[in-house]
Amino acid sequence: MLDETSTPLLFYSSPKLEERILNDQPVLQVNSITKRFPGVVANEDVSLALYPGEILALLGENGAGKSTLMNVIYGLYQPSEGEIFVKGQPVSMNSPRDAIALGIGMVHQHFQLVPVMTVAENIMLGSESVKNGLLDTRAVARRITELSERYNLAVDPYAVIEDLPVGVRQRVEIVKALYRNVDILILDEPTAVLTPQEIDGLFEVMNLLKSQGHSIIFITHKLKEVLRVADRIAVLRDGKLVGQTTPHDSTEAELAAMMVGREVILTVDKTAAHPGAAVLEIDGVAARDDLGQPALRGVSLAVHAGEIVGVAGVQGNGQTELVEVLTGLRHADGGHIRINGQELTNASPRQITDAGQMSHVPEDRHAYGMVASYDVAHNMVLNSYYRPPFARAGVINEPAIHQYATQLVAEFDVRTPSVDALAGSLSGGNQQKMVVAREFSRPLKLLVVAQPTRGIDVGSIEFIHNQIVSKRDEGVAVLVVSSELDEIMALSDRIAVMYKGEIIDIVPRSQATREGLGLLMAGVKD
Amino acid sequence: MRIFRSLLIPVLALLAALLTGAIVMLIFGDNPLKAYQGLFAGAFGDGRAWATTIRKMTPLILTGLSVAYAFKAGLLNIGASGQFIFGTVCSVAVGISMEGMPMLIHLPLAIGAGIVGGMFWGAIPGLLKVYTGAHEVIVTIMLNYVASLFAGWTVYAGGTQGQTPGPLWDPTAGAISETPDVLASAQIPWMFGPPYRVHWGVVLALLVAVLFWWLIYKSIFGFELRTVGQNIKAARYAGIAVNRTIILAMTIAGGLAGLAGAIETLGLNHKFAPEFSGAVGFDGITVALLGQTHPLGVVLAAFMFGALDGGASRMQFESGVAADIIQVIQALVLAFVAAPMIIRSIFRARWLSEAEGQATLTTGWGGN
Amino acid sequence: MEGWKGASVNQLVWKRTQLISIVVIALLLLMAILVNTTALRQQTWLRVLFGISALNFMLRASVPLILGALSGILCERSGIINIGIEGMMLAGAFGAFFFKVQTNSWPLLASLMVGVLAALLVGGLMGFLHALFSIRYRMDQIISGTVIIVLATGITSYLFDRDAVAQGKFGEIRIPLLADIPVIGNVLFNNPPITYLALILVVVLHVAIFYTRWGLRTRAVGEHPSAADTVGINVNRFRYLNTTLGGMLAGLAGGFLVLEAVGQFQEGMTAGRGFIALAAMIFGNWNPFGALAAALLFGYTQALQNELLLAGVTTIPRQFVSMLPYVVTIVAVAGFVGRVRPPAAEGKVYETEAH
Q1: Which domain holds residue A317?
Q2: What SS3 class is residue B108?
Q3: Segment 239-298 of chain B within 8 Å of chain C by CB
Q4: What is the pLDDT of residue A4?
Q5: How much is the average pLDDT of B279-285?
Q6: Contact status of B145 with chain A (Cβ, < 8 Å)
Q7: Looking at the structure, do residues A450 and A500 belong to the same domain, yes or no?
Q8: Which of residues 185-224 of A touch C (CB under 8 A)?
Q9: B24 and B165 housed in the same domain
Q10: What is residue A434's predicted lDDT score, i.e. its pLDDT?
Q11: pLDDT value at A20 more than 70
């Protein structure tokens, strides 16, 4: 029952919905929106309506144009073509200020909160209460308390944002939107940073908001969530609206196919692991974060040859620091790290890659994994440029680098005009494939992979997942850190859950459930 | 084509700066045409004018390379003038002592002393940046003042309250604070003697530029330096010893500025007095940016600035326009080069891509 | 970043630093009162260190540093690094001088006021230029600051008429009663107007930054511009405004040098004060009161230099004594920069998402 058409039909099988569409006026309607950027069409001829008191899920994979469309609706982008109607009136919005005035609020995927300011300061920003020329923080705090009681969103107005966990920050963002009296709320990938239990809590809030007459656009690429909470579903692919449906009328597999445009294998194909000797041994490691706060508090973990250990946890519980300590990028204050039986605690990154035969796919590929202003060729030898044949007697050998890079680009299917193209000009998926190509093409004993598929397309995700599994099958010890629980579940043979700088538990994949892991991620252990 | 494009912005920037300079002169009642005529005559009018231009160009090549070198590692070396002065003092100290030494030993020693002095002065901000996070811009500027006070002390003629004279002071100069002349065995010989007064230092400077090019673009060391400058986190990830690279970059940058000081004194001034300022060090920033931090560009930019400086006094003499206008023009060149977008809008050159030639540094005070 | 980590170590270090500076200031004050009201005055060294004249000189030397640091705070709190304070100060000084000379024939006060306005105007112009370079033309902010300095140095020497003389400068205004308090009254309440203004501005800016709508938005723009943008605040407009205001304060610092301290203009007369002010801003953790304390410290080193040379109590060559302020600045920057926390979005171009 999917309408696979480029111009969506407002046709639903559910009689109740059909009735509503005939009777209700949409609170928000976009007609034939096209948004072009230099060289890219991000949205093409998209038409969509949102009705009072409903949750509309906007489904699509990374780069499908969901965020662009929402930024158009929120006044951050001006559409190249098309019209927007709010409560029946045609509107043109030049800034979020206009959108807010029309009752549209948005919770961005990357929270728009100033870390060093308090909750109240963040919430009032742009809509300040002023008394005698000075900020009236107390009035704002009263209003916040009111809202948080009414919508069951507990926040402390005087807490400083950077001291708050991710889940609470999201509540602050929602209160920030409600503070502006919005009745249309856009939630951009709100579940990406939450534990399964926090997701349940969020869905309760969403239903509560709905029951009080708010309309919600829920942007996501997670199919299960869509089926659970949405009233209606719209699917975007390559900037176009490819269909609309309801949870009643569709299945996960159908939605996936619609989202990607072909059949998708939702699981990673892999056989049982045959773990060998321990390759990586972490013993009581402690470390601090950039601000000098304890980030790792005695982490112990072993990864064996031929197995994949996944590290799960809510973002910010020490995963980043763990990877950095392992790879020599962060100083360990205590504990030991041994690779292949060799003591490599606080060794330099080069010692670790050389002596430990370790490769590292970093969490933030732009900051660490590549030099955007270098061409693909030199990025391919970013950590082997000094070795023969790439350099001899201190002199760089350009032809050898070129030849090697050309070979890797072909082998790992990196889509680039040539190896001379700047790395920064490639798409996210191809940049990641470039990093993977570099890191996987060395003699390896240990592979440390952080957030391997963040922000990239489904095709690249499948490719990278298969590469990781095949490395395992070659006998490499693999440590995968990801905030995507689905990814951890799909890849891992054992799952370690991090909470507040410690490994709270290690569970074999066969015994792991989403709910169980979710409780561990929230620090609940039996 | 690539060379043409990378030359385009500097040339347009110079043009725009000369135009703006002319407007400034018109506003304040000077005749820009006459001024530029005098400037051109002073820079290229005859053999002596050419000699002046080359003479002025020589230290600028080296201070320009100094700034460019640090820039490759993402550091802004505003301290070239302090390093220049410190190098000068060190080379003079060697140059006025060790009588009877053959030139073959004495001259290299004196030049080497200048390099080492500059390296020492450049290493300080590098070390402070790495170990304390102090931003190199503030440290180098403070060190410029310290260097010039220190240099002033070395030639200090002594005070009325019993202060002892500085160690390099020339007692025969009486109350004047200056050093004796550098011994003949430590002087860089003339390539063209008086009245042209062009010494072999210019050849040395050009050779250093070639070495710079090889080091930056052909060696492992240069790859590491550039990687640190382009993306310091990726450099750390790639196993490059980032701290060592930063310290070394500042040290070598200091050495280049120190060499400039040595060449200028041993080749031309033959002595040091406090009024010999390190202004060429500050000009090195402009020269480096104008030359897009490429050694060939730096040499061309130094030539251009040498011509501007060389022609300035004749311009003042012939047209009555204060020579300081040259400094205004040089600042404008810097502005236009650092922001090619201004050039784009002035010349309506939409085909210049936006980011072309845009200079970027590691920003912020946190030392990362 | 997480709740389980408690208050940041940075903040704790900062609290400790604040405590130490309060104790130091209190001790200094106590010593000053003791030395200046008792027979201890006879001890040359104590007089050099704590005499009324040292304290007076400290305040006078601090004024351009205070104003310069406030200028830096204004710009950097909104996310624009301002390394060009030195140039704005110099340009402001020249502007003040130029217009003071033009109006020499006017009544002194009117002529001085014209000078102050000119300093504000010229400084503001330079600040606006810095904003224009950094925002509109996306120039690297450190380079833009350097351009401002080179430009100001060039233009002021080009336009400076070495024969011109400015007649008269601001005199002290004695505040009745308060000025009669021993020691403190003499130092704090018997000063020329720009000195009072600088001290008042510290308080005003503190309140404005932390307790007004403008301040809240400024801080948001400097810390997390897209957070400000998504609630409809025009990020770049704030940056233009603050950088221009900052330029005006730096210009006023230059005006102080000409109209209140020296009375004349000299080429390069700022002599690194802009950079020391920058160090004071960092040292003071981008807070007006912190900057005030740091500026007083740096001012004190200058006073010390002055007193040491005047008293002739040391045979150390004067060049080394003169290095004191510069060396102290390096030590301060090296010792503190890792422990302070600059506005997070500083130095980055903000591309508004609106297209």
Answers
A1: 278-357+443-521
A2: helix
A3: 282, 285-286, 289
A4: 40
A5: 85
A6: no
A7: yes
A8: none
A9: no
A10: 95
A11: no
The domain boundary residue, chosen from A135, A150, A181: A181
**B160 inside 8 A of chain C by CB:** no
Cβ–Cβ under 8 Å, residues A390 and A397: yes
C-alpha–C-alpha distance, residues A234 and A7, integer Å: 12
With a cut of 50, say whether residue A166 has pLDDT above it. Answer: yes
Q: Which residues in chain C are closer than 8 Å to B326, comparing Cβ atoms?
A: 154
β A391-392/B198-199 pair status: unpaired
Question: Residues 306..335 of B with a Cβ closer than 8 Å to C: which?
Answer: 322, 324-332, 334-335
The count of CB pairs under 8 A between chains A and C is 115
Closest-CA residue of C relative to A106 is: C230
Nearest chain A residue to B238 by CA distance is A383
**Chain A nearest C-alpha distance from B133 (Å):** 14
- What is the C-alpha to C-alpha distance for residues C80 and C144, in angstroms, rounded to an integer? 10
**Nearest CB to A165: which of C3, C219, C220?**
C3
| Distance separating alpha carbons of residues C174 and C192, to the nearest angstrom | 8
Counting the structural domains of chain A, the total is 3
What does the DSSP assignment read for C210-279?
HHSHHHHHHHHHHH-HHHHHTTT--HHHHHHHHHHHHHHHHHHHHHHIIIIIISS--TTTTTTHHHHHHH
Residues B239 and B288 placed together within one structural domain of the fold: yes
Domain count, chain B: 2
User: Does residue A342 lie within any of the structural domains?
Assistant: yes
Kindly report, residue by residue over C226-275, the tens digit of the pLDDT.
999 999 899 999 999 999 999 999 999 999 999 999 999 998 899 889 98
Q: What is the spatial distance between Cα B49 and Cα B55, in angstroms, rounded to a whole number?
A: 10
Q: Which long-range contacts (CB under 8 A, 24 or more apart) does A486-492 make?
A: A486/A222, A487/A310, A487/A452, A487/A453, A488/A310, A488/A311, A488/A312, A488/A517, A489/A310, A489/A514, A489/A517, A490/A267, A490/A268, A490/A465, A491/A268, A491/A270, A491/A308, A491/A310, A491/A465, A492/A308, A492/A309, A492/A310
Whether residue A428 lies inside any domain: the answer is no
Summarised one tens digit per residue, pLDDT across range A350-385 is: 999 988 899 999 998 888 999 998 999 999 999 999
Kindly report the number of other CB atoms within 10 A of residue B355's CB atom.
11
Residues 6+ apart with CB under 8 A from A138: none
Residue ranges of A 109-138 with Cβ closer than 8 A to chain C: 112-117, 121-122, 124-128, 130, 133-135
Distance from CA of C85 to the nearest CA of B (A): 12
C8-339: CATH architecture: Orthogonal Bundle (1.10)
Q: What's the CA gap between B248 and B255, in Å, rounded?
A: 10
Chain B residues 187-216 within an 8 A CB cutoff of chain A: none
Q: What is the mean pLDDT of residues C285-304?
A: 89
| A316/C contact by beta carbon, under 8 A | yes
Clarify whether residues B230 and B339 are in a common domain.
no
Q: Tell which residue, A303, A300, A299, A301, has the closest CA to residue A273.
A: A303
Question: Which residues form the domain of B132?
Answer: 53-298
Confidence at B354, pLDDT banded by 50, 70, 90: very low
**Structure-block tokens of residue A158:** 């005087």
Residue B305 lies in a domain: no
